[in-house]
Write a structure and sequence with these properties.
- One of its GO terms (molecular function) is cytidine deaminase activity.
- Belongs to the cytidine and deoxycytidylate deaminase family.
- The chain has about 130 residues and is an alpha+beta fold.
- It contains four helices and five strands.
- The chain has one domain (about 5-120): 3-Layer(aba) Sandwich (Cytidine Deaminase, domain 2), CATH 3.40.140.10.
- It has a five-stranded mixed β-sheet.
């Protein structure tokens, strides 16, 4: 995977300031990139009723889908934390509808960066 880490990290950090995470204090931002290079952004938005919270990853996917995009290459996910922001099961399941096993997931925290293929994080997809 080749990309400009510095540009992406700066964008992710700026986006994370838009996170509404007053309950967990765990700000997450994401940049979803289409195969044509178009970018869609997402942040986590929490709610006092936790089940109504939406993750940054799903926010980015829903924005892209609303714009008619369906061919995705990678997603960058950043947390303003020492811990890497691994996608939750709900986010992985949503992604599974639209990505192949080689879709790239790049995680950033304040301390590290790790890269995965989708299949490494969800090797067995739920399908009807």
């Amino acid at each position: 995977m080749k990309f400009n880490d510095k540009r992406i990290i700066l964008k992710l950090k700026k986006l994370s300031q838009n996170s509404y995470s007053k309950y967990s204090k765990f700000s997450v931002s994401s940049i979803l990139v289409t195969k044509k290079g178009k970018e869609f952004y997402g942040v986590n938005v929490e709610n006092a009723s936790y089940s109504l919270t939406i993750c940054a990853e799903r926010n980015a996917f829903f924005s892209a889908l609303t714009s008619g995009e369906k061919d995705f290459k990678r997603i960058y996910i950043y947390a303003n934390s020492d811990k890497l922001p691994f996608p939750c099961g709900a986010c992985l399941q949503v992604m599974s509808e639209f990505v192949d096993e080689d879709f790239e997931i790049v995680l950033f925290s304040k301390k590290e960066k790790r890269e995965f293929k989708f299949n490494e994080l969800l090797p067995k997809r739920f399908k009807l």
